[in-house]
Amino acid sequence: MNRKKGRVGENGGEKERTGRRKAWTLAGWAALLLPAALWAAVYLWRGVPSVLAWWLIQAYSLLAVLLVALGTAACAFKVSAALTRLAAGRGKRAGRAGCPPVSENGGAGGRARVRGNKVLRTGRTGRALLAAGMLLGAWPALWFAGVGQMAYPADPARTGPAATVVSPFAEETVVGWGGDALEGNYHVVAPNERWAYDLLADPAGIGSSRLGDYGIYGMEVFAPAAGTIVEAEDGEADHAPGESESATLAGNHIYLRLDKTGTYLVFAHLMQGSLKVEAGMHVEVGRPLGRVGNSGSSSEPHLHLHHQRQNPAETNMFVSEGLPLYFEGESGAFMPVGGVTVRNGRDVPTGERLAPYTGTAEVP
Ligand SMILES: [Zn+2]
């Protein structure tokens, strides 16, 4: 591209510009329509397509951030190059700062060009669309930094089947995270864990590095509903509270297919070697399953419990749909709300209390 100023009006140059303009416009529309289509899928579709679109929005945001960063760097480079030319006195007519057009020289599409007195800009609309699309696509990347997070948009009243269970503990527990809203439940950003609970017991949030100091550690977990065990694993070591390395997210876990709905409960972060059930077993309410530990991605001993449509033993979490999970209370089924308050730099659970299950536990 070594054309001189004012010498770009030949047929070949015109064609090239038209083609380039079309390419920019096409790229611009694609960049804008892709995130728009994904958001539409999240809100208008239900089930797995909506769940998948939700994760794709986040994957696309990372790509968009990368492209925005590259585009910004390219612009900055062009501007600095133009300024350098100006300073050197070789860019007398390149007085227009900003990006795009920084010079009237030929070059990559989008720059200003002079044809007689007429200034042509190649692909200006396309570039504007592209910039708008990239910004629309990029902002969910902030969620990864904990900024502007939002709940996966699903309404518990319109999502089914819901499950209502008893407490999986024979002692009182406290909901660390739980409920329908982001304020009380950080899980809501993940569609598969949309109505998940993290259950703890006093003392909790104490900042101790000894597992035994936590009230919930080693507490027996009972089947909160009748169903069939589809997977039970307890070979992973429990780690000290605050330590982050773990082989898997769930750690030692049990997946239970509920008799009533055919949907699944996930019990995570159980104690190594504590499980009393195995895959294929049918369990009634109150049957001891295992004990609470601190395996997998867990900052302190707790039971993570959630309800989902797909069999977690066979289905990737990115195509799994979380379902509402309620507990039986004195005045009917309810969804206890969690809460975590930071005290002395520690995350202290301050959510609703869950009354113990008082039924007779069946001894295996
Ligand atoms: Zn959890």
Overview of the molecule:
The structure is a single chain. It contains 3 helices and 18 strands. The chain is 24% helix and 21% strand. The protein folds into 2 domains: 11-145, no CATH class; 156-354, Glucose Permease (Domain IIA) (Distorted Sandwich). It has 364 residues and is of the alpha+beta class. The longest helix is centred in the first third of the chain and has 40 residues, at 48-87. Strands 4, 5, 7, 8, 9, 10, 12, 13 and 18 form a 9-stranded antiparallel beta sheet that branches. The protein has a 3-stranded mixed beta sheet with strand order 3-14-15, with no helix packed on it. Strand 16 (340-343) and strand 17 form a beta hairpin. It is elongated. It binds zinc ion. Zinc ion binds at residues 187, 196, 198, 304.
Q: What is this structure, in a nutshell?
A:
By secondary structure, this protein is an alpha+beta fold.
Q: List the uncertain runs.
A: 1-8, 94-98, 101-114, 116-120
Rg estimate, integer Å? 29 Å
Q: State the domain count.
A: 2
Order of helices and strands: HHEEHEEEEEEEEEEEEEEEE
The outline comes out as elongated
- The average pLDDT value, as a whole number, equals 88
CATH architecture of the largest domain: Distorted Sandwich
The percent range for strand residues is 15-25%
In total, the number of strands is: 18
Instruction: Give the number of helices.
Output: 3
**Any ligands, ions or cofactors bound here, and which?**
zinc ion
Structural class of the secondary elements?
alpha+beta
Largest sheet: 9 strands, antiparallel
